[in-house]
Amino acid sequence: MIRAALEEFDSLLNQHGKDHAPTEHEWQRSFDENPFILGRAVSLTLDGLFPQVRLTSGRVDYLFHKTASSPFFSTTGFIELKRPDHSILDVYNSGNQVVPARHLSRAYSQACGYLKDIENAVLVHNGVTLSCGNNRLVFIIIGTTDELMRKLHDEMVGLFENLLPPGFQVITYDQGWFPAL
C-alpha cells in the first residue's frame, strides 16, 4: 500500500512539465488518499489532518493540529497546495533581489486570511472540535528544487530562506520526502 502510494506520487511528479501536468485537484486527491505523505513532507507527527476545511476567507487545502503536553503549546496550521509547475520566486536587479512569484504570493495571501480566521477560534469540522493552539505554522507545497537551483546562486540562499515571515515554510514537490523507490 505504501509502495503503491509512493509510486503514484512519483508518477504524478514525473508528469510535471509534460503536456498534461496534474492539476491541483489531482494532487489534492492523491494526498487525500495518502495523507501520510503530507505528514512526512512537513516533518511533523500530526494528531489531526483535515482536508478541505471551509473558513470565512475560503477553503483551506489542509488544516492540521498537533497536540502538545500543554494546550498552550499545541500547534494549528495549514498546508496550502500549489502545483510543481508553479513558480516559487522571481529574481530581479541582476540577480540581487528575490521576491515571491505570483503563485507563492497568492498562497501566502490565502494563508494569511486563514490565520486571521482562526485567531481565538474553536473549529468544528465533521464533528471534530479543535481549540486552536498558540503556535501557528503554514506549509506551502509548490514548485521544484530545479527552479531554485536555476534561479539562486549561493549568496542568495539566505534571501530565499527569509522570503516569507517566521511560521511559513516553502516545501518543493521533489524535496526528497522519501528515499528512492
Task: Kindly describe this structure.
With 181 residues, the protein is of the alpha/beta class. The protein has one domain. It is 32% helix and 28% strand. The protein is built from 6 helices and 9 strands. The protein has helices spanning 2-14, 24-33, 36-41, 102-118, 145-151, 157-161; strands at 48-55, 58-66, 75-81, 89-92, 97-100, 122-125, 128-131, 135-141, 168-171. The strands form 3 sheets. Strands 1-2-3-8-9 form a 5-stranded mixed β-sheet. Strand 2 (58-66) and strand 3 form a beta hairpin. The mean pLDDT is 80.
Key phrases:
two-stranded antiparallel ribbon; 9 strands; single chain; 181 residues; alpha/beta
Strand content: 25-35%
Can you summarize the main beta sheet?
Answer: 5 strands, mixed
Strand order of the largest sheet: 1-2-3-8-9
Helix content: 25-40%
Total beta strands? 9
Radius of gyration: 17 Å
Instruction: Count structural domains.
Output: 1
- Mean pLDDT across residues: 80
Structural class: alpha/beta
Poorly predicted regions are: none
SSE run:
HHHEEEEEHEEEHHE
Shape: globular
Spatial gap, N to C terminus: 13 Å
Counting DSSP H or I runs of 4 or more residues, the number of helices is 6
